[in-house]
Amino acid sequence: MNSRVVELTGISQRFATHWALRDIGLVANKGDCIAILGPNGCGKSTLLKILATLLEPTTGGGTIAGFDIRQNTLKIRNQVEWLGHELGLYKTLTAEENLKFSCVIKGRKPLVKKLREAMAEVGLNAVGGKPIASFSVGMRKRLSLARILLESPEFVLLDEPHANLDREGKTLMNRCIQNWKKGGLTLLLASHDHHEVLPLCDKAMVLNQGRVAYFGDPKNIPSSVIL
Amino acid sequence: MNFIRCLAAICHKDLLSELRKRETLNSILFFGILIIFLFSFAIGPETALLKKLAPGLLWLVVLFSAVLALDRSFQAEAEEGCLDRLILYSVSHRAIFLGKLFTNFLFVLIVQTVVLLMMMVLYDLDVPKEPWNLVLIFLLGDLGIATLGTFYALLITKTRARQVMLPLLLFPMLIPLLLACVFATQYALEGDPFLQARPWIEMLFVFDSIFLSACLLTAGLLLEA
Rounded mean pLDDT of chain A? Predict the structure, then answer.
């Protein structure tokens, strides 16, 4: 993979008559950890969905991992892991079955040892055989984290990574983010709470009403653009 | 190989979920059986009339029951963002569609078999002399219902009035299939000495081929929409 992982220019997204994003440009190199900050409804999740190729931007374009975001969505998806508000887990399946399903469908053999290791890492090994309908939102989020740990992505998108997690869960999330950074993965963290994500990131982008209000060093964010 | 594995994984996941919840199959079976009883009360005890109407009633019951199952087929995927997750897995869109279609086909086939057995008892239907003809009609008819039903269920996944929209879109499209199924079943139950069911079976085959191909070609667009 090239050192430039994300290169977006002029990205705008319109929903009916409302512009959720206006003329966004973003560059991320391999190993970068970028915080996307801003109040609710400023377009953070929309930007992450475009980066995950779940949304096609109304205007603008660019590349992710060298692939065009409009033409090569399948190739991009193979290298991206996404943790959004909706976790994409099946309530009727057990934690272990959910992980197994994601492995099988991605074409990998679901090795029980690896599944259990991933579940142990997120503190769910004792409840691996239980249907996740009985899990709290925080436990489900941990399970989604275990699913990412089983993959070997190049690019990880985390939308409100600390939401619904208890203190232990937040520590676990931070540890995972630090490990991914050490491993040279490119990370994008969207959050409205800059206290939680800024210490983890090398760069920050602040969005306001769908436009970039600041992009650069997280230490130099002007107080006027951050909540 | 990858395609088959994805298809099998989706079917396995859906069937396992159904085995745990027993929501869809139980409700459509009871619904189907209930309608047979209601029809027999509405028509009266005249066995000759019940026998005459049996093919039409059978397919109507199957169609009404199928709508309940079809409506739920993408519900679990849409609820927790599972459909987006499936798309992010870079799974073949056709594998997702066929996986869902196969599960729906299985549900419709089970309902059809149970409803037929119930009708044989309640409406005093004779065991057909050529049961393989009937099996072929059921397979083709149920495949057609499951194909178009899965397609429309996917189409309306993100709409609000989902439960109303599905029958409104699906039933008019299934009129040719319903006609072919009813006539073919009627001849098959009568023994079909003059092979009159054959053109209807051929029509079913053509219907299934056209709509299965069209749905497979467009399922990707719907999933990405």
Answer: 90
Q: B87 contacts in A (CB within 8 Å)?
A: 54, 77
Q: How many domains does chain B have?
A: 1
Indicate if the pLDDT at residue A1 is higher than 50: no
Tokens at A66, concatenated:
């060298």
β-sheet with A59-64: strand ranges across: A18-29, A4-15, A59-64, A67-68
> Which of A80, A92, A104 lies closest to B17 in CB terms?
A92
How many degrees, rounded to 5, is the angle at CA B25 between CA B168 and CA B81? 70
CB interface of A with B, residues 110-149, below 8 Å:
131
Q: Which long-range contacts (CB under 8 A, 24 or more apart) does A140-145 make?
A: A140/A87, A140/A89, A141/A83, A141/A87, A141/A165, A141/A169, A142/A169, A142/A172, A143/A87, A143/A89, A143/A95, A143/A98, A143/A99, A143/A119, A144/A83, A144/A87, A144/A88, A144/A89, A145/A83, A145/A172, A145/A173, A145/A176
ipTM for the predicted complex comes to: 0.84
Side by side, which strands form the sheet with A33-37? A80-83, A155-159, A186-191, A33-37, A203-208, A211-216
Whether A160 sits among the annotated catalytic residues: the reply is yes
User: Is B82 within 8 Å of A74 when comparing Cβ atoms?
Assistant: no
Per the DSSP assignment, residues forming a β-bridge with A158 are: A83, A189
Q: B76 and A92 in contact by Cβ < 8 A?
A: yes
**Which of the pair, A226 or B78, is modelled with greater confidence?**
B78
Neighbouring-strand partners of residue B118: none
Q: Which positions of chain B have pLDDT values less than 70?
A: 1
Query: What was the pLDDT predicted at B1?
Result: 63
Nearest by CB to B5, which of A54, A77, A104? A104
Q: Which among B6, B16, B81 has CB closest to A93?
A: B16
Q: Which two tokens stand for residue A46?
A: 């929309």
Q: Which domain holds residue B104?
A: 2-224
Q: A218 with A204: CB under 8 angstroms?
A: yes
In angstroms, the separation between the Cα of residue B157 and the nearest Cα of chain A is 16
Test the B interface: residue of A90, A100, A143 with most B CBs within 10 Å: A90
Query: Is the Cβ of A80 closer than 8 Å to some Cβ of chain B?
Result: yes
